[in-house]
Amino acid sequence: MKRLLLVAYHYPPDPSVGAQRWARMVPILREHGWTADVVTAAADGQGTLPAGSEPEGSGGFGRVFRVPQPVLALERLERAAWILYDLARRTFSGAADGRTESGLHTVDAESPTDLADRVSLPHRGSSRSEVRWRLTTPRGWGRVFWTWLGRARFRAWGRMAISAVVETSRLRRYHAVVVTSPPHWVQEIGREYAVSCGIPFVMDLRDPWSTTEALLEPVASPLWLRLARADEMRCVRDAAAVLANTENAAEALAAEHPGAVGKIWVVPNGWDGAATESAEVVPPRPRRPFTVSYVGTLYFDRSPRSLFRGLACAIRKTGASPATLRLEIMGRIENGSADQIAAMASQEGVEDFLFIHPPGSRADARALMDRSALLVSLPWAHTLAVPAKIYEYMTFGAWLLVLERAGTAPARMLDGSSALVVDPDDVAGIAEVLRQCYTSYSRGERPTPLAAAGRFSRREAVATLATALDRAVS
Fold first, then answer.
1. Which of 417, 415, 423, 410 is nearest to 449 (CA)?
2. Sheet strand arrangement including 176-181
């Protein structure tokens, strides 16, 4: 049995989507002759686990080391400054009741600094074309500072993580070191360790790095892109294999690093099964009314307006009523509020058909998807990545409507499948898909889960991963 050291800052019990990628792949890898020790960030209140412990989430096949995130001295000073600044701003602006400004949200938990409970910042992304040097404003200098600080923090954690492994694994031999990111800045530390030990280094990029299409607003600085390119060049140069999760991301990497073409592998995410490929596939069941659902976060770039317009057109053509057709949305809304989404629906004439649910548990989300006849993936600005929710949708007995432009990663992946991919600006096309599905449903027809065809499974992706690892060590 070959053993790899997996450096994964995000790993269960971390609830983030990125944490699930390797947590789901590690158990399947054992079928291909690989097991793994994992070093990850400690959750609040956890320390480094002793050698040999196998907590829940390890897959029972290796050890998990949980290493706390160190706090840098400059970071402590920065936090204190922000607390004082925020207090002064609230006091002198009359906002002493603690309410944030309209349209402002706390910065994402995976942002470079741990400001989420300390200061309000615009929660939005900046595309590459919008990233400029703006060193004549405090915000411009702030972006430079947060970029540098974020890189320093994650590199410091990476060094602590590697040290924790070295201290407890002196007699354990690893055949490869895999670093999965984001945070991307940990990749360089993993590379240094692998090179020093003379063992293969494997990069796993859950999201693009230097080829990223957007940055969180607090770090939207050209400095981030320059540091990313420099670090990525060193890592790609020394990597035995580079893993991308879509064809589009792999092609972008190859264009950026032509010399690495032969070692770039596409290892996508996938729908998950248990003992058999179809173990978690939810069979279609009779249900009324015809329910169209979107489950997931409404980010700043995922507007439902085109869906509302297409739905209004389909309603006119079919004569559907709120008793026979409904649209349900469940999840966190980051590009506005539930009231604003409802107002948008009212503008398009579908307010009586819309039901908005607050974020619920995983069981709540699955219950909604289970009673849905059609599941929708809304458009987003990223052409190199596939929304994780699409893979989950595949396991339900519902039609899958994906609003994406031709050539994007989701559209390319689903080409040739039964998924209904429509350009988000094609309102007539959206309306026609909804009309056809509604009519078929009214006749008693039920769709087959996309996963039933066996494509796009996690097991399929792990087979490619195992081949990449075997070639890396050979």
1. 417
2. 64-67, 34-41, 2-8, 176-181, 201-205, 241-244, 264-266
The contacts of residue 219 (CB under 8 Å, 6+ apart) are: 111, 112, 143, 146, 147, 150
Rg (CA), the chain: 23
CA-to-CA distance for 260 and 249, rounded, in angstroms?
Answer: 14
Distance (Å, whole) CA 417 – CA 142: 46
> Which residues 6+ apart lie within 8 Å of 437 measured at CB?
290, 373, 374, 399, 401, 420
Helix (H, G, I), strand (E, B), or coil: what is residue 306? helix
Q: Report the largest interatomic distance among the alpha carbons of the chain, rounded to a whole angstrom.
A: 72
**Cβ atoms of residues 184 and 10 within 8 Å:** no
Instruction: Read off the DSSP letter of residue 385.
Output: -
The β-bridge relationship of strands 214-216 and 125-127 is: antiparallel
Which residues are bridge partners to 40 per DSSP?
A: 66
Rounded to an integer, what distance in angstroms lies between the CA atom of residue 184 and that of residue 205?
8
Long-range Cβ pairs for the range 346-349 (8 Å, 24+): 348/305, 348/308, 348/309, 348/311, 348/312, 349/312
Return d(Cα 305, Cα 309) in angstroms, integer: 6
Query: In this structure, how many other beta carbons lie within 10 angstroms of the beta carbon of residue 76?
Result: 10
- For 197-244, give the DSSP string: HT--EEEEESS-STT-SEEEGGG-SHHHHHHHHHHHHHHHHH-SEEEE
**b (16+ CB within 10 A) / e for 361-400:** eeeebbebbbbbbbbbbbbbebbbbbbbbbbbbbbbbbbb
∠ Cα 9 235 208 (to 5°): 60
Contact (Cβ atoms closer than 8 angstroms) between residue 211 and residue 384: yes
Q: Write the CB contacts of 53 (distance below 8 Å, at least 6 apart in sequence).
A: 63, 64
Q: How far apart are the first and last CA of the chain?
A: 15
Q: Which two tokens stand for residue 307?
A: 């869906």
Per-position pLDDT tens, the chain of length 474 = 899 999 999 999 988 888 999 999 999 999 999 999 999 998 754 444 433 344 444 454 578 999 999 988 888 887 887 788 778 878 876 544 443 333 322 233 333 343 332 223 334 456 666 677 777 788 888 889 889 999 999 999 999 999 988 887 666 789 999 999 999 999 999 999 999 999 999 999 999 999 988 888 888 889 999 999 999 999 999 999 999 999 999 999 999 999 999 999 999 999 986 433 444 555 555 558 999 999 988 876 688 999 999 999 999 999 999 999 999 999 988 767 889 999 999 999 999 999 999 988 889 999 999 999 999 999 987 899 999 899 999 999 999 999 999 999 999 999 999 999 999 999 999 999 999 999 999 998 888 899 988 889 999 999 999 999 999 998
